[in-house]
Description:
This protein is of the alpha/beta class. Helix content is 48%, strand content 12%.
Amino acid sequence: MGPRILILARGHLGSHMSAPGIRATAQARVLAEHVPGARVTLAGPNAEFEEPADRAYRVLRWSNRNLLQLVAAHDIIISSGLPPHVAAFFPWKRFVVDLFSQYAMEWMEVGRQHHHGYKRHAWVQRTRTILGMQLTLADFVLTCNERQRDSYVGMMVSLGLISPIAYDNDPTLRRYIDSAPHGIRSELPEPGRNVFRGIHPGFSETDRVIIWNGGIIQWYDPATLLEALHILGRNDIKLLFLGAAYPGIKDLGTGVRFQDAKAIAARNGQLDRTVFFEEGWVSHETAKRYVQEADISVCSYFDNLETRYSHRTRFVDLIWAELPFICTHGDVLAEEVAKNTWGIVVPEEDPEALARAIEKLIDDREFHARCKANLAAARASLQWDVTMAPLIRFCADERPPVAPKWERFPGLVQRVFTYVLRRAVFQVLDNRDKRKDRERDRREKAAERARAARQAQTAEGGEAGMPAARG
Length: 471
């Protein structure tokens, strides 16, 4: 028999999935099909999911209550966020940490929006320690691209994880940390029923449609796109923001950037006329119909460290659907867009350049067709069984880890202790801010009640002083 493999998904599974759930589900499929004798379990944090029709792997819900039991029943455990205490109970298990984002930079951006002052500093220290724990716990690390891999190798060196023993076991370190990009859907695009053209209010069959494929988070820049459309001033070009509230993640997507985008569209006279927003989260199955119906896609963002190390998973369905797109420069996939002519790359926060790019990609049908052909040529190299080859190899390889567990264990103990301390500091600051928020809300409600009472008294006084109506 082959290995018993457990995938602990950190995102929701089922019909409404974002990148973490999609990636975990694809991993379950390829491991079940390509690791000899593998028995694969996909576990998610939610209860709404479906077993695969062919029963290639089983699906269930995981929680703190059944986590240790699940880990005990498997040989290899894969997750983007492994609970560190499992190492204390099961040091002989093989752990894979799937770091498909550069979380240090992503969390830095998240902290800018949600935390301030010393609390933000405490948040960064806490999240940095989480990342250090994950890297120390891992027998194998996955990243999404080579830039991410280089950055994580640097972190592992600074944590003392690349020892002479690890280096001698594998001077390339590919058996310790490797790149496994997000893959595309296995099926080919096929015609189907429309989901918004001629159906969604505001969209006709002849409109030229731009789709923003995904939510609007802190590091995205919808304002530049809206300004570019305002510059063009064409009523035949419609923009649809696809996706708002991320499944299972409270307030992610419908935060400041999302609300600002709606306000800008309203101020420009674009809202519900040439610019539209899907308020929920479109299912994974339905999303492919949206990208197939669109003419082009646009995603604008800021050129920062989050961008440099990112791997925009929202582009994957665009590649699958052969949908030419425009993006901002700075990340790995933007380089692929420019090199392979999948669309057009524009500078950061340059609405004039973006307006020109939109006009070219929509109106130049020869260039549009060339982009589509180039996207179709990329399909074979982006299949999940190709991109996940490093994970398949690790799960089928019975050799011991490149970095011996006994070397990493003292560092893990230290980092777990540091994390507990930093989490406690952050929790104290968070509770303090929550008390301040509750007190502010209480004062505001009291002031509102007082204003209402004064208005009622004024109204009563006015009525009392009015002359009686004549009969």
